Amino acid sequence: MMLSLGHEVFLYGAEKNDSTCTEFISCISKEEQEKYFGNVDWHKEFFPIQWDCNLPYWQTMNNNAIKEIGKRIQQKDFICLIGGNCQKPVADAFPNHMSVEYGIGYEGVFSKYRVFESYAWMHYVYGLTKQSNGGYYDRRIFNYFNPDDFPVNYNKENYFLFIGRMISRKGVHIAAEVCKKLGVKLILAGQGVKEYSNGHIVTDDMVLDGDIEYVGTVDVKQRGELMSKAKAVFVPTQYIGPFEGVHAESNFCGSPVICTDFGVFTETVVNGLNGYRTRTFGEMLQACKLVEKLDPKKIREYAINNFSMDVIKYQYQEYFNQLLDLWDEGWYSERPSELLV
Fold first, then answer.
1. How far is the C-alpha of 341 from the C-alpha of 334, rounded, in Å?
2. pTM
């Protein structure tokens, strides 16, 4: 996104990264990753990372990043971090630069400059850290997607979809119960299934049955096909969801979502437009009947206007410009914002 606006972007990450950037700098090798984590098939297993900067894999990554950043960093450059407290040592190594935590959907924050995935999560973190005053340089910027990655199908098929980790906190059991009550088909895709046969599924913490088809983990193409043809996609997250990207992806495919009525959904799901926010079993049953009336074209249009990279990149650019003002007049800068026009 930022390259398209003329910025230089130096990416420090794991070996063999094909992201588009000015320069990619490898800070941890595949061999080191396998040493620390084993040969994990992340398609089937949850990745066994722990959020502690004293662990050897964080130390390896951080120490190499600090060394390589030191070779390249210029005055007024931003250090953009996505690992929370686990990457604080990187920020501490460059006290005269602004370290920005972007895409915050976690609890362990530390920076003065923070971009949250939703207001819901921003305020959750404020409460968690007992921060009663707002932060002028905290922002809410949604996650971002390339619309071209998501196909649209205006002829929906007769099934509902749940795609994500098969754990109770994601609410997969609720989707199964609703579909069983209505006598409709539910397709499941994602990690965490231990046993599956003839509509009977066993996960780590639940047993599901009914007219259920489990298709395993899916690649980008399969994801698009499943989402675009579904009557609706269930996202009945039980916790305060920071963003829950599945619901935005579904909207890009022109498919409505049926979700809970807290967390990010209160900011992104408009009842009767791109889905329904629900609080009871009865409301979910009702939503399953109402989604057929929603317009896939309007749903995709909503997603493009709110979550596409061509929209979000300008929000980040404005945020970085406001941070650059801190080198001069700071908060009292009279530079107008392009986002208010």
1. 15
2. 0.95
